[in-house]
Amino acid sequence: MKRYLPWIALVAAASIPLWLHDPYILNAFITTGIFIIAAMSLNLLLGYTGQLSLGHVAFFGIGAYASALVSLGFDVELLFGIRVVHEPWPVWTGLVMGVVVAAFFGYVVGKLSFRVRGAYFVIVTISFAEVVRLVALNWVELTQGPLALTSIPPVTLGLPGVGYYDLYSKQSYFYLVLAVLALSYVVISRLVNSRAGRAMVALKENESLAVSVGIDVTGYLVLAAVVSAGIAGAAGGLYAHYLKIIDPDVFLFLYTVTMVIMVITGGKGTLAGPIVGGLIFGFIPVFSRSFLGPELQWILYGLFMILIVFVLPEGIVPAIEKWFAARDKDPETPLVKSTQAHIQDAP
């Protein structure tokens, strides 16, 4: 049954636009889905290699800007009077380039920063995110700086000679986000269940022992960084083309904190953890806005997060998995005994 749960969840999610007609709730599903993709990419680093990247929003923002600029085109002067003119490309190529550029920077950062560990690695990632934010803020000729990149085209699907379809509606964009989320899930699942994934987990559990048996520490960590950054870049590209406007605020530290909350509360090191955590913390403000003011919404958000961390320190998904494992191991649980007693007492 467990192996079919992802497919059941996918089918259930695909049915949402068929019966949900509230544009506000549908918008919440789309934005939450985008950040779930970003949280899944962070979970690959934090949950499976044990490396906390507090600058992960940099790859999200790089993917957003790269995808938008490739789709819009640009004319910018570089060093020594060299001028680069780029004509607009189809939007799908922008999304692909956003993934590629983000993955490239993931490789660069991984190669440089995985020489250090612990707090030093965290400082490197935060510094990288701040540098990228300052570049986006000050390179006005390319990024428009605080004025923002506007009129970003929507995602267009189609084939030459057949026709093209612009994803303007929320229903169509919901399915695009769901497809990217499912693809990211498959990629991460295949990776963590492969030899490389087992090596990453070994590095997290006991790096010295892993090195002693010949595991290439830097190689596997850089691989995780590249895949993680690429998926975060895909989430950033979706974000840019959905909002159709992007500015340096996309690099805000708050977005990294949001990803970390989704991973930790859902259960780091589990495939479903970021999804469960993302749905819960993506919709707390949505459901509480009907009866609470903005300040009380964030207080409820914080209290709920603290409650989960205290009651379920390993996260929601690991707690559920342990409960089911204990039930399968010992079917004589109080719930089962009570059910059997009611059956025996029945006339």
Figure out the total of helices: 16
Which structural class fits the helix and strand makeup? mainly alpha
Rg, Cα atoms, Å: 22 Å
**Spans of 5+ residues with little confidence (pLDDT < 50)?**
335-344
Residues in helices, as a percent range: 55-70%
Cα shape: globular
Ends: how far apart? 33 Å
Please report the total strand number as a whole number: 6
Estimate the strand proportion. Answer: 5-15%
Physical arrangement of strands within the biggest beta sheet: 1-2
pLDDT averaged over residues: 85
Q: What is the count of distinct domains? A: 1
Largest sheet report = 2 strands, antiparallel
Write down the secondary-structure element order.
HHHHEEHHHEEEHHHHEHHHHH
How does this model look, in words?
By secondary structure, the chain is mainly alpha-helical. It has one domain. It is built from 16 helices and 6 strands. It has helices spanning 5-14, 16-19, 23-46, 57-72, 91-113, 119-138, 140-143, 170-192, 195-205, 207-212, 217-243, 253-266, 273-288, 294-311, 316-329, 334-345; strands at 74-77, 83-86, 149-150, 156-159, 163-166, 245-246. Strands 1-2 form a two-stranded antiparallel sheet. Helix 3 packs antiparallel against helix 13 and helix 12 crosses helix 13. It is globular and about 70 Å long. The model is unreliable at 335-344 (pLDDT under 50).
